[in-house]
Amino acid sequence: MTTSRTIAGLLGPTLIAMGAAVLVNLDSLPAMVQQVAHDPALIYVSGILLFVAGLSIVRAHNIWSGGWPVLVTALGWLALLGGLLRMFFPTRLAGIAAQFAEGRGLLAGSAFILLLLGAFLSYEAYSRE
User: Cβ(18)–Cβ(119) under 8 Å?
Assistant: First the structure.
């Protein structure tokens, strides 16, 4: 459980910061995504970073039973797979990102999901046992 709480203590605040940043920058985010969509090299490099983060989580925490720690493992695998997709298909993902950024409601909804996941993981990580 200590590893679960440690990783959740890193993921939770990170997801909260990401979700809050999306909401704060909701007006300018489509333009930023459009810029990134024209730079497949940036998508490739972010894929490497995401892959390493996901691989680190999966290597330290590949737990598929026991309640909320499964969420930590699932997020690790999602990061690992997301990183691989960005490395293998940066150009294709650039087009998908450009389409995704056009939907403001979708961006706001995604931000709220990040906030909820982050709040839950932070609670589990920093609350008393």
Answer: no
